[in-house]
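Annex B. Sample input.
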Amino acid sequence: MQEWSVLRSRCARMNPVNRDLKQPLAKAFAPGVEVEAGSRGRALVVEDSAVNQEMARAMLDMLGFHVTTASNGHEGVLAAAADPDLDLIFMDCQMPVMDGLAAARAIRIAEAGGSRVPIVALTGSAMPGDREACLAAGMDDYLAKPFSLAALRAMIDRWTSATKAADTSTLRKI
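Annex B, continued. Sample output.
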């Protein structure tokens, strides 16, 4: 979890008004590696902590995602509805205004009859029953914070591969 600590300390030291985070933070994980922004798809990060939001953004940027952020569940529901091209949603569970569980339920209701975007819970709470509560609310998976870049990459590979396979199988049936 050393990379999480490095990234968190870099985020905390940055000027909150003028932050170009993609390159400085990505270089903390993989110096010299350049990834084309958005080449793997679009992700929404719903997280109330500005530092955690920027950490997730930096990691996802480095993995080739175009990232949109929201600061609470209500904003997350609106952002998900506004972007029909989302490939993944990463959702904190404990947030003000609307928590992640309620937001996931609202997103699933809005998706009824349409395509389903995978929602991965990102939470610092790893108590017994938390994973089950996330799944019951309509989330697809669970990643406890702090997480490594490798764990995030594995989660992305699991869900983007599954989504692409489902899309491909649907196309074959038509």
